[in-house]
Amino acid sequence: MNLFPKFAQGLSYQDFLGRYASDAQQARWRQVYDQVMLTPAQHELLRSFQRTMKVACLAGAWCGDCSGQCPIFAHFAAEAPVIDLRFLDRDDHADAQLELRINGGDRVPVLVFFSEDGHEVARYGERTLGKYRELARGLGGAGCPTGIAVPGEPLLAQVTQDWLNEFERVQWILRLSPRLRKLHND
Is-contact 75 43, C-beta < 8 A? Predict the structure, then answer.
């Protein structure tokens, strides 16, 4: 399925929340949005992006993973004008949900990255490595460490960096694409 036409149907962050989120859900998303703190290095990196990156985010306003991650994407788009971010409701776009299943299941949020001219570049979702490490810590309890859970930054900071790594990876794919370099004569 070509998902690029779905991108055009997507809504801005605020319009998505206005249409699909209850007042309580909007408050939960706003709370996370207010807690996201980009570091100076992250600000600088986002400002350095040069290629237009169209990003469709399949999400649900009711979803805890979405409320914990989608506000991060809104910060990225605010910092980097070349990021054109749109949100699609999972239930209203069931065909996209079917195409974007992960491990045989319906998962959100899932991002699909496109070039400026509609070529799919990458897909990434539903939870990041930092989030999975946090979940793994809870599996074994204190008496049964998994050995893969690495302590460090607060979870939101880890998830923010995990997502930024993916946005940066896609930016490099776009920036170094021979096709796009020829198009932009750079």
Answer: no
Note the pLDDT tens digit of each residue in 34-64.
999 999 999 999 999 999 999 999 999 999 9
Helix H segments across 49-93? 64-79
The per-residue DSSP string of 30-54 comes to HHHHHH----HHHHHHHHH--S-EE
> Is 174 buried (19+), middle (13-18) or exposed (0-12) by CB count in 10 A?
buried
Residue with tokens 């997502």: 163
Within 8 A by CB and 6+ apart from 41, the residues are none
Kindly report, residue by residue over 146-185, the tens digit of the pLDDT: 555 456 789 999 999 999 999 999 999 999 999 999 999 9
C-alpha span between 41 and 39 (Å, rounded): 5
Residue 125 has phi, psi (to 5 degrees) of 170, 180
Q: Give me Rg for the CA atoms of the chain.
A: 17
The pTM score is 0.92
C-alpha angle 95/1/89, rounded to 5°? 35
CATH class of 4-184: alpha beta
- Residue 46: is it exposed, middle or buried by C-beta count within 10 angstroms (0-12/13-18/19+)? buried
Integer Cα distance of 84 and 86 in angstroms: 7
